[in-house]
Amino acid sequence: MGFEPKLLGFLCNWCSYAGADLAGVSRIQYPPNMRVIRVMCSGRVDPGFVIEAIELGIDGVYVMGCHIGDCHYLEGNYEAVKKFDMTKEFLKLVGLEERIRLDWVSASEGVRFGEVVSKFVTDIKELGPSPLSGDHPDNELLEKVRAIKMAVSSNRMRALVGRERKITEEENVYGEKYPVERFKELMLQAIKEEYERHRILLSLEDESKSIKDLAAELGIDPSIVLEHMLILKSRSEVDFQQIIKNTPIFMRL
Amino acid sequence: MSKNEKKDEDVRVGVFICHCGSNIGGLIDCKKLADYAGTLLNVAHSEDNLYTCSETGLTAIKAAVEEHNLNRVIVASCTPRTHEPLFRECISDAGLNPYLFNFVNIRDQCTWVHMKDAEGAYNKAMDLVRMGVAKAIKLEPLDMVKVDINPAALVIGGGVAGMSAALNLSRQGFKTYLVEKEDKLGGRLNSLYKLFPHDINASEFITNIISNLQKSPNLEVMTSSKVSNIDGFVGNYQVEVLQDNNVRNLEVGAIIVAVGSTLPDSTGLFRYDGKKVITQYEFEPILMKRELAAKDIVMIQCAGSRNDKRPYCASVCCMTALKNALIIKEQKPEANVTILFRDLYTPGTQYEDYYRKAREKGILFVKYDVDRVPNVEDNLIRVFNEFIGDEVLISYDLLVLSTPLVANSDNKELAQMLKVPTESNNFFLEAHVKLRPSDFATDGVFIGGSAKWPVDIAESITQGYSAAARASTILSHDTIEVEGATSSLPVYNKNLCSGCEVCIKVCPFHAIKKNENDEIEIIQALCKGCGVCGATCTNHALVIKHFTDDQILSEIYAYGGGR
To answer: What CATH number does residue A15 fall under?
Structure first.
């Protein structure tokens, strides 16, 4: 038997879930690979949910909401876009970005629902099983995805993504708007930094390590590891443990 | 919590697998699925029913709750969008909190869409049931929120729909405010001559309604007035109205949107000039004053509608054209009238008669195609007719365009104040086209008339009454209960909240604020439970009731397997 992808879909109650129901009423046939979790709004889909599913080895995750402008909650799907884009950027760091997808399906688009699900199944089949699936997942990748899971849940990333629309679409008290392009750069930089910082934190969970060891282990320049370490120390996430042969050793708090 | 809720601390789930006749049972083995459900953790009872939603099925649920001391109930059948209320009521009757029910969709999203893959469908149903049980275990009883109701109503728009709604509500005894932005009531009716289907005079018709309005003791009409701000929630809206630069503050329990529609700009349309080429609305006063000078009159239907830019049918233009064509024939029997149309829309039991009468009176109907629209020249119109297979030349000295009604330009502004959506043509969007046609998703706000879609007078009145009836279902109560599945900041999470206020910014309903103690507070009556704030909260302090992180993650784990 060929590879049958294991897919998960988050569907908003008002449009996509209704569209999926309409596909049923219209007897539209599509492959049975996707399981659905109903949420009230696509904006409810926490980036952590998506990463959790990826970590568990689910081959693909679909987030579906109402078309832009048609949100039952006025603008929840705008928030969904921001959260999804951030999640995708994180997954690009580990080459899993094609395993998640965001789409709009209205309550009247039963046919389209069948089409987009079929397409997702085909595309993931082509991509092959997730390296995290099965009994022997790629452990190195698993560590990386765990770091991403922690990073998307971190205060900094959530605060950034939560304020994105406010910052880029509305003027501040001086009548200035923050340029979208600059925000994007800021976001990408934050994603890279938080990914690396959470990799450091994860690595320190098992045993305390020196900057040099961490740099070698994670493939990050030692000077950058040092910078991260100082910030993590200021966040009270790590601390000096001891000094061995003139080398400071750091521990997770 | 409902008063006689079962006190049992242990989680005992009951799973009911519905055959739905042969809709589900015809493809997968429901008995086997029920047996499988019985093996899952915390499942105390499972069974399959021919129709779980039937009286027999509901009785079986109640009996099982009693016999097996169940405190969670799962039905795997059609879709929560249609049947969740029924089963919630059922377990409520059995003494359980209605929020302890969970739905698993194995028909609309499983057996109906995988009809050629019975094994795939069965495996999917197994996963879905397992995920459903995992969520059910984490479900918590929720209280509905009680809200006091102020028995007063605001109707925005003094056209025929708004006047009908206001009249109905005031006659029911509710204090009603009718706000109209123009200096007199009547709306579109003021510019019309005669009304189909009975050819009564529009002016007499309005005079009649207005005199009824004046007789109503509970009604206050505010003309030259505009709603400038709306705060509050169902039962307790605070509305600011600007009347001749004076601010009036109203307190109402329900709001009806009946702002109607407006006329489009016809510049550039079929050589429109307002003199020789006019619109049906400009034609009405000519007929009213009996000043028709033209002899060769042509009308073009769907002028500026049912095209890429404005894809909808404005529904009233066909009948307007037929009515006016017959009036022409009455006032000037020797006139030649030609109607160029794409499709003629004369629904119902009375409108088709207009078409038949028009044919009898010698009015010509020429069909044209959207790809080959009539070509208007100085005194001549060229139109390609596919039945003849050739161009037809029609001379005219008056061309009347049947232009559509379009959405008001200030709809967006009002929609933002009310926190209700508009659709792609900028008309207001109801909660559900069939299930809740007079409601908005926002509680306590209702809609009627052409604000939603262009409709004729009869339909406007019907919708006005309908909106009033829906509003009175709220206004007639001292208190009502609103959805309990909202966002919340539980006491045990208060110390997690850093006060960053991101939740306040992302909430589209302004349901989150900081109280006098500088703490985040959720106004439950305003919260619609979308959950955006929960997915955004920087410190994971907010909990979205009935869709908690814990509940959703348990579904993910149940599907993905533990690691």
So the answer is: 3.40.50.960
Q: Which domain holds residue A185?
A: 154-252
Give yes or no for A9 touching B (CB within 8 A).
Answer: no
pLDDT tens for each residue of chain B, 563 residues long:
333 444 345 899 999 999 999 999 999 999 999 999 999 999 999 999 999 999 999 999 999 999 999 999 999 999 998 899 999 999 999 999 999 999 999 999 999 999 999 999 999 999 999 999 999 999 999 998 888 999 999 999 999 999 999 999 999 999 999 999 999 999 999 989 999 888 899 999 999 999 999 998 899 999 999 999 998 888 999 999 999 889 999 999 999 999 999 999 999 999 999 999 999 999 999 999 999 999 999 999 999 999 999 999 999 999 999 999 999 999 999 999 999 999 999 998 889 999 999 999 999 999 999 999 999 999 999 999 988 899 999 999 999 999 999 999 999 899 988 888 888 899 998 888 888 899 987 889 999 999 999 999 999 999 999 999 999 999 999 998 888 899 999 999 999 999 999 999 999 888 999 999 899 999 988 898 999 999 999 999 999 999 999 999 999 999 998 55
Range of the domain at B66: 13-142
- Quote ipTM for the complex: 0.95
B443 and B491 in a single domain? The answer is: no
Would you call A194 an interface residue with chain B, using a CB distance cutoff of 8 Å?
A: no
Residues A122 and A213 in one domain: no
Cβ contact (<8 Å) for B536 and A161? Answer: yes
- A44 in contact with B, Cβ within 8 Å: yes
How far does chain A reach from its first CA to its final CA, in angstroms? Answer: 48
Residue A141 lies in a domain: no
Could you tell me if B17 and B135 lie in one domain? yes
Q: pTM for the complete prediction?
A: 0.78
Q: Count of domains in chain A?
A: 2
Residue in B113, B532, B557 closest to A29 by CB: B113
User: Both B446 and B360 in a single domain?
Assistant: no
Give the span between the Cα atoms of B234 and B31, in whole angstroms: 46
Residue B359 belongs to domain with CATH number:
3.50.50.60
- The shortest CB-CB distance from A72 to any of B441, B544, B552 is to B441
CB pairs under 8 A between A and B: 166
Residue among A43, A56, A70 minimizing CB distance to B535? A43
Torsion angle in degrees (nearest 10) through CA of B165, B171, B173, B175 = 50
b/e map B383-393, b = 16+ CB within 10 Å = bbeeeeeeebe
C-beta separation of B112 from B23 below 8 A: yes
Q: Which of B49, B216, B205, B24 is nearest to B112 (CA)?
A: B24
Residues B120, A31: C-beta atoms closer than 8 Å: yes
Element (H, E) at A75: none
